[in-house]
Amino acid sequence: MTGEATSTPASRRTPLDHRGFRTLLLVIATPPIAAVYIWRTIVLPALSGTLPADFSANYLAAAARIASGHDPYDLCVLQNCAPTPGTFTPLALAGAQYVTPLPVAWLLQPLVGADPHLQLAIVIGVLQISLLVFLWATFRAIGVNDWQLALLLVLVVIGFEPVVGNFDEGQINLVLVALSGVWLMAWVAGDRWWGGAALGIAVAIKLLQAPLGLLLLWGRRWLMVVAAAVAGAVLWLLAVPQYLPEYLFKVAPVLAGGTGLFENHSPGGTVARLIDPGTFLGAVRDTSPAARLITTAIALVALAITFWVLRRPRTDQAGRALEAAAVVAVGPLVASYSWGTHLVLLLLPMLVLIAWAVRRRDWLVLGLVALGWALIGPGHNWFQLVLVSGHADIVVLRLMAEFGVVGITAIWIAALVAVRRDGSANGLDATHKDRTHKQEEHGTREDHAVA
Q1: Exposed, middle or buried: residue 199 (CB in 10 Å: 0-12, 13-18, 19+)?
Q2: What digits encode the pLDDT tens for the residues 106-146?
Q3: Cβ proximity of 278 and 79 under 8 Å
Q4: For the chain, which has fewer Cβ within 10 Å, the N-terminal or C-terminal residue?
C-alpha cells in the first residue's frame, strides 16, 4: 500500500503487493463509500433541515437552561425515577437528560435562539472540520506520505458507522477525535505542552479519554500532565462552576454504575446483561453490586495487561504511536458504558495500526482491526435490523448484542500484538547493531595489536 513497505519474497507475494492492483481496488471502493458519506452527513441533513435529536433535546436544551440561569442537571436521572416498563431509552438519548460535563452546554449558549438552519449548518460544519483536523494531525503523527495509504485510511474513517452516527445524533464526540489527533501528534513528537492541553480540554468536555492520563504519567511526560490538568481545570471553572459539584457527586456516580442496555458496548454491559437479563432491553435500569465489582475487576486487569505489554516508554516515532494506540484502544474496555457513538474514538488506534501493519505486511493485525471495524459498524447495524424486525429468538439477539464488545476487544488485542512485535523487532535490531559494533571494536583492537 505504500512505498515504505518492506520487500516481500517472491514466493510469498500476493496480488496486494502489486501497486496497480491496489490502485484498482481503491478506485472501485472510493466512489460508493464517499457517496454514502456525503449523502448521510451533508445532503440528507440539508434536505431534512431538522436538527439532530440528541443535539436539540440534550445539548441545546441544557444550554438554554444555563442561559436562563437554571440548573442543566434538573433531570429525571437525578431524581432516581424509574423508566416506563418495557421501554429502553439510553441515558444519553432520553430527551432532555443532559449528563455531559458542563463545558459542552456552556459553550453552546450563543446558539440558543438562533435560526435552526444556522444551528444545523454550524453543527455539520464543526463535525466535518473536526474530522479533517483529526486526519491531518494523525497523518502527520504516523508519517503518512503515500497517497494509496492515505486514501485507504480516509475510506476507513468515513466508512466507520460511528462517524455517521455522530452526525445523525449531533454528538460532540468528533470534536474529541480531533483533539485526540492533536494529542497524538504531540505525543509522538515528545513532551509537548499543547498536546497535554488538547487532552485536558477533551477530558473536560467528556471523561471518555481520562485513561490517557495514566499514559502521560507512565511515560513521564510531566509538561503534558501539567498542561492537561491546567487546561481541564480552567475550562471546568469557567463553565458555570456552581453546578460542578452536582455533576461530580450526583451525575457522574449514576453514569459510573453502568447499564446492561444492549447499546452499551463495554464489558460492563456484557456482565450486567449476564447477571440480570432484564437490563438487556431496559426493563431494569440499575446494575447489581456484583456486576459493578466484576466490571471494575475487568477494567483493572485490562489496564494491567496493557501496561505490562508496553513495559517501558519508547523513543521512536512508530513505538510512541503504538503506545498511544494501545491505551486508547483499552479505553472502552475500562469504561462502565460505551455507546456506539463513543466508539468513534477508536479511529485513532485503527489508523495507527493499519498504517503500521500495511508497512510491515502484518496480516494478523490487519485482520483483527478489520474484524473490529466490521463488528462495530455493519455487525451492529445487522443486530439493530434483526431487533426492530421483531425477531423472537432472544438467544440470537443476546449473542448479536455482543458484536460491539468483541469488536472493541479485537482492536485492543491488535494493538497489543503490534506493540509486542514492533518492540521485539526493534530489540533484535538493537541487539544486532550492538553485537556488530562490539565485533568491529574487537577487530580494530586486533589490527592495532598486529601492527
Answers
A1: buried
A2: 999 999 999 999 999 999 999 999 999 999 999 999 999 99
A3: no
A4: C
